[in-house]
Amino acid sequence: MNHEKALQAVEQLMIKTVESDVEVLQDASRHILAAGGKRMRPRMTLLAYEAVGGVAMDTALPVAAAVELVHTATLVHDDINDHGVMRRGRQTINAIWGRTFALLTGDFLFTKVYTLMAPYGDLNIIFAEMTAALVEGETLQAAAAKAGKLDRETYARIIAKKTASLFAGAAKLGAMLGKATPQQVEALYQYGFNLGLAFQIVDDILDLIADSEKLGKTAGIDLTQGKGFATAMATNGNSVHGSVAVAEAQEEDPAAAFKRKLLQGNYIEEGWQQARQLAAFAKMQLEILPPSAARDELARLTEAAVERDY
Amino acid sequence: MNHEKALQAVEQLMIKTVESDVEVLQDASRHILAAGGKRMRPRMTLLAYEAVGGVAMDTALPVAAAVELVHTATLVHDDINDHGVMRRGRQTINAIWGRTFALLTGDFLFTKVYTLMAPYGDLNIIFAEMTAALVEGETLQAAAAKAGKLDRETYARIIAKKTASLFAGAAKLGAMLGKATPQQVEALYQYGFNLGLAFQIVDDILDLIADSEKLGKTAGIDLTQGKGFATAMATNGNSVHGSVAVAEAQEEDPAAAFKRKLLQGNYIEEGWQQARQLAAFAKMQLEILPPSAARDELARLTEAAVERDY
Known about the structure:
The structure is a homodimer.
Chain A: H1 3-17, H2 23-34, H3 40-51, H4 57-81, E1 86-87, E2 90-91, H5 93-97, H6 99-117, H7 123-147, H8 152-177, H9 182-209, H10 212-215, H11 221-224, H12 229-235, H13 240-249, H14 254-264, H15 267-284, H16 293-306
Antiparallel strand pairs in A: 1-2
Helix pairs in contact in A: 1-3, 1-4, 2-6, 3-4, 3-8, 3-16, 4-6, 4-7, 4-8, 7-8, 8-9, 9-15, 13-14, 15-16
């Protein structure tokens, strides 16, 4: 089974997994799944599996699907907390079905993840820890946003937990399933972790500089909510609301003023630099693997993660 | 290890499981855990394990803790959707920390459940299915409340999914862990299922007739939200809002008017009857088990579930 075919099988498996005789759960789940997405995480699971010599691709499909579904569950809950109305070019579940059903759909996706993972024994320990880290990262982010302060160290901790842990877990799970050596498992974990950090920094920069249409989601939310890389870089622990207050005194739109300040500084360029460096470090980890098409594709992902405009 | 000691060990395990360096998650989780509760579900897991001859109680503790934690996760999310401010005699997480952190705390508890269950192999399939049913039941309930209609059949379906499936699963998991015969597993499943139905009917009646202080949570929410046994019995699919409209025309408080209507009918008594019958059926299932203190305690639970005023 080649890589693209395997990814299609993952899509089908996800659609099947969210079957329910409770219509709204099935409809809402399929609504967000059908919107697609980059599918970075399941790609990494499948490619890591192949790259370490795994040959029974069927055994990796449920794990790849579980990884993407748990990510999807958190997106659904994020959109409640952020009042997001657009996601992957579609209306959010929140916007269409309302908050109660969005919350329950997220819960439903969380439970279905574990239906998929049930047969995988000890891999569930890794999976559960990675998911707990993800929720912890989201919580740290919400706490920083509420406090109206975000320093660079906290930002690093947030993206390590909320994004890098899942990327790292996705690659590690694929490697373990493929019976990788301990060194390969560790290398693929580091690959995923660094790629996850890079990916999130780029996401946060794009939230600031790209338009909503291209992103497929409402742009600029991070900034107004005191989140994201640029916010951390530019304020480094000082109150976001403070910067905004100055703008208000000058009768300028506060968000626009803050954005102008960020764009004037060197912060965006600094962010790209960091992301590229992390991606390069991720790529380096692949040297331990034997040459293969899957390894090449993993290398390509490190470039795709940072050289993108949506 | 006797039963009460095992239950204390479950409490300690739950407290330990929600450890996190993200303070708000740990604080909020421990806030609701420390409030206690009847702990019906973990009791059933432990007692079922013992009643079928299980001797290594330590192996049943994480499963009992997981069952109670998944129940707790849904309570936390319920309180968001219902705007509940009191739970188990304490302020809800929602009321203290706000909606965003309540949502994330519920998610955190869901993920921690699977950390506990990770070592239990195929039991995870049962666990995941039971949890999915639980979320489906909550969703059916929200859909009926939104439509302002609740017929008896839908009510039965809701409580089967949202309560009975978890009670049934709790007992079944204990039985399977204790290496029960297939007949014993089935009997304990039926025991839990029927006891769960009875328990929920009584809960719904108490929501209507008891006061908030005794219940430890805000009473009467179900009625105003078009939920619960009495609502289903009295309206049987007709619009709750219709009954309320009549009251409004008569310049009477709508909820009070509807409550008066319910209390005048035979609905409450009918509910008690049904609950007692279901509890008796649950008790009957225990006959397949050899006599033991655990079996006696399981029998006592069937009485405690229906003969209570909070």
